[in-house]
Write a structure and sequence with these properties.
507 residues; alpha/beta; Rossmann fold; Isoleucyl-tRNA Synthetase, Domain 1; 4-stranded parallel beta sheet; 16 helices; 16 strands; 46% helix; elongated
Length: 507
């Protein structure tokens, strides 16, 4: 088990991570509010915390990972009323779509995925406890949290409440003791889902939901709480107030992690700008693993520039998209998968199983795992881990291309070790899980479709070239290669025959 240092958003500094139980981590991440298709911002956050979870496991920790589904919330109700669909059914449908999309990006299912709708009893019990401690009050079927009873309010965001509210128009509810008090329970209104409670029929407020679900599955106090920076205020601030108001000042999350934002050439996502990018669109166009590699190539806390271009028709309507950042990531993936395929082919051709045991290997091959551990133990520094992967892949290609002067068995063991360790670190980052041949074939199919290449015509030309070579008509063979190059196709002559790929320089 490797000691971890992480940047705690609450303390605003990098600290040594000391879980409540040595070697065991309780981790809660705010999940989706499913009222529309998941977009790239949702995916970026999900990938960030999935990578942290995977990294902790790589470093030797057991992780109990809880990520909720907020299926009772104002936006869901509003969308259901607009479409005529039952809000609970709408939320269930989009939650299933979210999980399907995240799986395409290599996001593992949480160990526990609680839903608000199945935790109403726990929410009511927590509200009752807050009323009993004097932190909450009821009026006309509503229950509000009284911020004045929690002097530490604002500690996470680092701002005073009047600063947080500066310039914000707040609708004043005369029934509240302070305009800043927030809802724990909302009295039932027509057209909204409602449950029975000691205060009459109604539904929970947004913030109390996560406090109740963390308590139900991780207890009074747990190790890590994660979410996007946009949730620091008011959501996470209110979670702290509720949970510590109920269970004491040392309860709730001990460390806070927040991922940075994606920037679209300095712009926020907006439907009017055409840059609200659905996850399914990304996975269909470029492949889910390209987004994964793009994300782990940046530190999860850093703001990330995402190069995206909306394709518009003559009337200005968005008809498609170019994901330049992801196309570049896809090219990097091709390099890694090609390297792994070359190693696998070499091991298979050498007539052994590719044992990567304790036999002698080149010293450089022993670096990857230790270097990755150091990087990931330092605030989950995935860019440094990616650099170590690039070094290992470069070493493998040198051994494959320039074998002279190296003992054959040492070379074989070194390549086998590199393949094993590339995949092991890949697991920690959520990449390189596919069979290389399958990934490369799927990538080629995407590029063929994107660039309008006639694959059947390519295969016919390759067959013609093989016939020309067999007849020793090398002029014709070279001419066919030229034709294929003009089509944007590269040929690779291997012991198994001629393979082909799409040239990345093709338009």
């Amino acid at each position: 088990m490797t000691p971890v240092r992480l940047y705690d958003s609450f303390r605003r500094e990098k600290v040594l991570f000391e879980p409540l139980e040595p070697g065991v981590v309780g981790m809660y991440v705010c999940g989706p509010t499913p009222y529309a298709p998941a977009h790239i911002g949702h995916a970026y956050s999900a990938i960030a915390f999935d990578t942290i979870r995977r990294s902790l496991r790589f470093l030797g920790y057991q992780v109990r990972y809880v990520r909720n589904i907020t299926d009772v919330e104002d936006k869901i109700i509003k969308r259901g009323n607009e479409t005529g669909e039952d809000p609970m059914a709408l939320a269930a449908r989009f939650a299933a779509d979210y999980n399907r999309d995240m799986a395409r990006f290599g996001v593992l299912p949480p160990d526990i995925e609680p839903k608000v709708s199945t935790h109403i009893a726990e929410i009511i019990a927590l509200i009752e406890r807050l009323i009993a401690t004097g932190c909450a009050y009821q009026v006309d079927g509503d229950v509000n949290f009284e911020i004045a009873k929690f002097p530490a309010y604002g500690a996470l965001s680092g701002m005073k409440l009047d600063e947080l509210r500066a310039g914000e128009r707040v609708e004043v509810d005369p029934r509240k003791r302070s305009p800043d008090d927030f809802a724990l329970w909302k009295a039932a209104k027509p057209g909204e889902p409602a449950w029975g409670s000691p205060w009459g029929k109604g539904r929970p407020g947004w913030h109390i939901e996560c406090s109740a679900m963390t308590h139900a599955h991780l207890g009074d106090t747990f190790d890590l709480h994660g979410g996007g920076k946009d949730l620091i205020f008011p959501h996470h601030e209110n979670e702290i107030a509720q949970s510590r108001g109920a269970y004491g000042p040392r309860s709730f999350a001990r460390y806070w992690l927040h991922n940075g934002f994606l920037n679209f050439k300095g712009e926020k996502m907006s439907k009017s700008l055409g840059n609200v990018v659905d996850c399914s669109q990304i996975a269909d166009t470029v492949g889910g693993e390209a987004l994964r590699l793009f994300c782990v190539s940046h530190h999860f806390r850093s703001p990330v520039d995402f190069d995206f271009e909306a394709i518009r028709d003559g009337d200005g309507h968005v008809t498609g998209a170019r994901f330049h950042s992801l196309e570049a990531a896809d090219k990097k993936l091709e390099y890694f998968y090609t390297t792994l395929k070359r190693i696998d082919d070499f091991i298979a051709q050498s007539g052994n199983t590719g044992d990567a045991g304790d036999g002698k290997v080149l010293p450089e091959a022993d670096k990857l795992i230790p270097d990755a551990r150091v990087a990931l133990a330092d605030d989950f520094n995935t860019p440094v881990a990616m650099a170590a992967l690039h070094e290992a892949a470069a070493l493998a290609n040198r051994l494959l291309d320039e074998p002279k002067g190296i003992d054959k068995q040492v070379r074989r063991r070194t390549l086998a070790r590199l393949a094993r360790d590339l995949r092991a670190v890949g697991v920690a980052l959520g990449v390189f899980a596919a069979d290389p041949a399958v990934y490369l074939a799927e990538r080629r199919a995407r590029l063929v479709q994107r660039r309008g290449i006639d694959a059947a015509a390519v295969e016919r030309l390759i067959a013609d070239r093989a016939a020309a070579r067999a007849a020793k008509d090398f002029a014709r063979s070279d001419a066919i290669r030229g034709e294929l190059t003009a089509l944007g196709v590269a040929l690779h002559d291997t012991p198994r025959g001629t393979e082909w790929s799409v040239l990345d320089t093709a338009s």
